[in-house]
Request: fold
Amino acid sequence: MAQVSALVETLKATLKAAGIKYTQVAAALQLSESSIKRKFSRKEFSLGELDQICALAGLQISDLVRRMEENRGRLQALSSEQEQQIADDPGLLLVAVSVLNRWSFEQLLDFYQFQPTELVQLLARLDRLKMIELLPGNRIKLLVAPNFGWLPNGPIEQTFLQGIQRDFFSTRFDRDDHKLIVLNGMLSPASNREFQRKLERVAREFDQLNAEDAGLPLESKDGCTVLLALRDWHYQSFASFRRERA
Reply:
């Protein structure tokens, strides 16, 4: 029973990270939302139902089991208050993002203007938040789960969104290592959900490549930021042309 409970909790965390709502799960299983909530509460799912839910997140059951094993005892998210502590200190935020990208103590000292004692203090704060374990010799052991993420619309996400709005698009995207694709179309709800699942798979592939490149020398890599977004949006300059609907 303990393993079943851990598997369902991993499933809940996976759905939350992917932005998949109970209503979407209910639609996929052709059940009511209240029935889905009861199933999660009681942790009662058939293998077929688990397979269908995993498919919503672009996963197989074996992927979910692997995540469950990887996540045991690892941090999946911080509280809003903990995130606020990091967001309020730019230096701490920088170190937190860097260690999540598997930077070493030496790389941080070499690349940024930290004094050794200052950097140790910042890492010690992340240690107290259980994001890392600061080992002898200032070695950094990452303690977060593979599906660790900042809280949706939380303090750190809001901090980054402010920077994105201000800085991210202040370029022409005409370099070989830049890419901007703007798409516009009309999708049914089913197609919208399918495209969201594809975006989630792309995000997981980015994370995998990031992990694979973690051991490469710092000078052979560049910091990259990917912004994936989909929403119901209409160009404001077209608003005056729209016919009023009853």
Q: What stands out?
A: Residues 2-71 form a domain with the 434 Repressor (Amino-terminal Domain) fold (CATH 1.10.260.40).
